[in-house]
Automatic annotation (TrEMBL):
Entries under Gene3D superfamilies matching the protein: Rhodopsin 7-helix transmembrane proteins (1.20.1070.10)
Keyword vocabulary terms for this entry: G-protein coupled receptor, Membrane, Receptor, Transducer, Transmembrane, Transmembrane helix
Species of the source: Strongylocentrotus purpuratus
Protein name: G-protein coupled receptors family 1 profile domain-containing protein
Gene Ontology molecular function: any one: G protein-coupled receptor activity
InterPro entries cross-referenced by the UniProt entry: GPCR_Rhodpsn, GPCR_Rhodpsn_7TM
Protein's cellular compartments: Membrane
Regions crossing the membrane: 30-50, 62-83, 103-124, 144-167
Xref: PROSITE patterns: G_PROTEIN_RECEP_F1_1 (PS00237), G_PROTEIN_RECEP_F1_2 (PS50262)
Gene Ontology, cellular component aspect: membrane
Length: 191
């Protein structure tokens, strides 16, 4: 008898890896160095941009948000790639959240997508400032900057929501729901 689900342990112990290379000490060390240096560098960017009043501009507001998103991405690299085995699931809501947030890598995807959106926001802000300098002060007001930042955070959280629904807890084990699952059907009904 075949099943239509794969447990996370059976499918791929290393997460989204192509081969077992993610398990090597060299690759884990590189992920650790990237994660810790990313966290340190982005924390330093936030510290400097917040502490130095002369650096507070519209661009720096977007760069601070970008640094926060990059900090979170660097932070989540460490547990996902240095310790690929998730702790055992507990019963109840905490097990569901562990499966859907951690094992599905939803939170890593959220931080990566937010980083991309803030990079686009910085690019567009700089484009308007350079190409249309007379419109810049009229368009990039404090309200508009806050609105764009809030939209980047919201869209960053909602864009990878699919990962939240393609994993489920069955018999105390987190399982990947391959196509076609109820999550896939829900997404295609919305489209």
């Amino acid at each position: 008898m075949t099943t239509d689900v794969e447990t996370v342990d059976d499918a791929d112990d290393q997460g989204w890896s192509v081969s077992g290379i993610d398990n090597s000490a060299v690759v884990r060390t590189v992920y650790g160095v990237i994660g810790f240096s990313g966290m340190a560098g982005n924390a330093l960017v936030c510290f400097v941009l917040i502490r130095v009043p002369s650096l507070r501009t519209r661009t720096s507001q977007f760069i601070i948000n970008l640094a926060i998103a990059d900090f979170l991405t660097s932070f989540w690299l460490i547990p996902f790639h240095m310790f690929p085995r998730a702790p055992p699931l507990t019963k109840g809501l905490s097990g569901e959240l562990m499966c859907r947030l951690y094992i599905s890598k939803y939170i890593l995807w959220v931080s990566a997508v937010m980083s991309i959106y803030f990079l686009v926001a910085v690019t567009l802000e700089r484009y308007v400032a350079v190409v249309h300098p007379l419109k810049y002060k009229r368009v990039f007001t404090t309200k508009f900057t806050l609105l764009v930042s809030a939209c980047c955070w919201l869209i960053g959280i909602l864009s990878p929501i699919f990962f939240f629904f393609i994993y489920d807890v069955r018999d105390g084990v987190c399982v990947f729901l391959p196509y076609p699952s109820r999550a896939h059907q829900m997404v295609f009904q919305l489209v």
